[in-house]
């Protein structure tokens, strides 16, 4: 298999698939989000990519191992946001437990059910 270059000519974000127009010309190739690099931001229309041409289970030509040629890398923002959320939740839980244990807040505010 030879690596080829092309441009994403059509991308359907909701359905997770799109088409690549080869730089060398010819018919557009189908590709699925599962065949796109997980180290990069989601695909967008008019993004220049490299890929390998392959044959799918139904015998159709498709693109696999699709990767942007330049840039379009994840900057880690999503990971930082998740980490920050986890830290804030942990801090809130610790403060709530501390105040509850020190009997500074009534247990009725913490427990929402009747434990009869």
TrEMBL record:
Q: Where is the CSD domain?
A: 3-68
- Alphabetized UniProt keyword annotations: Membrane, Transmembrane, Transmembrane helix
Membrane-crossing ranges are 83-100
Single GO molecular function: mRNA 3'-UTR binding
Q: Might you name a Gene Ontology BP term for this protein? A: regulation of mRNA stability
Cellular component (GO) terms are: cytoplasm
User: Does this UniProt record's set of keywords contain Transmembrane?
Assistant: yes
* Protein name from the UniProt record: Cold shock domain-containing protein
Q: What organism is listed for this UniProt entry?
A: Desulfobacter hydrogenophilus
